[in-house]
Structures are given as structure tokens and as C-alpha cells.
Amino acid sequence: MGRIIGYAYVVADLLHFGHLLHLENCKRMCDILVVGVLTNKATMEKKPEPIMSFDERLSIISALRCVDAAVTQETYSPLNNIYDIKPDILFESSSHDNPTVNPFGRTVEMPYYINQSSTKIKRRILEEEHANRN
């Protein structure tokens, strides 16, 4: 039997503990973890433009011990990369409304870390900046 390939995807703007926890949990379920990092254009299909550049985000994800390979994801949907990589497991966040079905294996819904998100971090920074101005 071959090694189990897993695929997860992230924006990873303002990398935080929730991102790390998600990817470490994904890695525990596979031998090789490939992580798609969404381009700015792909991110903006559903979210605001990231603060960090794509290259910065890709470099940070590539540097994580739990990530075996980081690849570009050109669309918000992971399907193009799934057809190229053919993972045994597609990891989806429980925060996604319509999880993608993996045609080459199974889809595993991973719990969303509600205590922290890039959106919450950005909001808190803005609130504190506003409070400090007054």
C-alpha cells in the first residue's frame, strides 16, 4: 500500500495558531501533506484581499514542519489542484458552507478553530487603533 497523500488549502493571511493547529491535525492523518495557498485573486472570490503578499504567505506555509509541499491554488475551489494531485484525503474546514467532494478518495471535515481567525485579528487591530486615537 502506498503512502497517504492529503490536500488542505488555506489563505493564511496573518498566520495564527488556528492555521497551525489545522495543518498539524491534517498531517496526523496522512503521510504527505500538500497545502494549496490561495492566490490573492482566488481569495477575493469570497473574501477581502489579503494583507500579506501571496509570495510571503506561500513561503511561510512552506516553512512549516507539518507541510511537505506548498503549492499555488489559483481558484477558491480546490478542484483544479485535486485533479492534478489526486490526494487520498481532501481536508475541508468546517467553516466552509459547501465542502468539496474528493473524486479520488475521501473528504474529511476538520474543525474550525473559532477562538482565532485572521478576520478577528484584523478587526481587533483596527478597534485598538481607533481606541488609541481617541
TrEMBL record:
InterPro entries: Archaeal_FAD_synthase, Cyt_trans-like, Rossmann-like_a/b/a_fold. Keywords: Nucleotidyltransferase, Transferase. It holds the Pfam family CTP_transf_like. Residues 13-90 form the Cytidyltransferase-like domain. The keyword Ion transport does not apply. GO terms for molecular function: nucleotidyltransferase activity. PANTHER family: FAD SYNTHASE. This is Cytidyltransferase-like domain-containing protein. It comes from marine sediment metagenome.
